[in-house]
Amino acid sequence: MQIGIVAKKIGLSVDAIRFYERNALLPRPPRTQGGFRQYAESDVETLAFIRRVQGLGFKLSEIRALLRLRGNRLQPCAPVRRRLEEKLSDVQQKLSDLHRLEHELRLALRSCKRELRNQPAHCPILREKNKRKPESAE
After folding, report:
1. Which residues contact 112 (CB under 8 A, 6 or more apart)?
2. Alpha-carbon distance 60 to 18, whole Å?
3. Using one digit for the tens of pLDDT, what is the confidence trace for 39-60?
4. Long-range contacts of range 85-89, CB-CB < 8 Å, 24 or more positions apart?
5. Are 5 and 29 in contact (CB under 8 A)?
6. What is the DSSP letter of 99?
7. Residue 114, C-beta contacts closer than 8 angstroms, at least 6 positions apart
8. 0.90 cut: is pTM over it?
9. Where are the domains of the chain?
10. Average pLDDT over residues 79-97
């Protein structure tokens, strides 16, 4: 199967497939005499797997490790479960950070609305001194 057919079948771009090859997520396929890549059904399955776990938020290095596990005859579930738990923990931390940011934005917006009632309005956000420590200082 040529790269264009594989790309349509999986819903990836040709460039994405080449990117996965360059980054050793997909083995380089054999080529025809005309120089075209020839993919097997196993390559299509690998690309579908890559796309699925990338959609779950796994980075390329993490996907590479999952592919090694996938290639193992035993295919142990414990290491995959551990990685999924770590990914879930990361997502929960990001959600917590986003909720904190949402709260701060609501406070800032409330402050702006309150100030707009006064004449002349002076933006409290622009004149406010930094009350918070920078994120990196925490």
Report:
1. 123, 124, 125
2. 14
3. 999 999 999 999 999 999 999 9
4. 87/56, 87/57, 87/58, 87/62
5. no
6. H
7. 124
8. no
9. 1-76, 77-129
10. 94
**How high is the pLDDT of residue 111?**
83
1-76: CATH topology = Multidrug-efflux Transporter Regulator; Chain: A; Domain 2 (1.10.1660)
Please give the Cα distance from 28 to 21 (Å, whole number): 6
Q: Give Cα 106 distance to the centre of its chain.
A: 27
Per-residue CA distances from 66 to 19, 37, 55, 124 (Å): 18, 25, 14, 50
What pLDDT shows up at residue 72? 80
Cα separation, 119 vs 103, in Å, equals 27
Q: Residue 138: pLDDT band by 50, 70, 90 thresholds?
A: very low
Give 30's DSSP letter. P
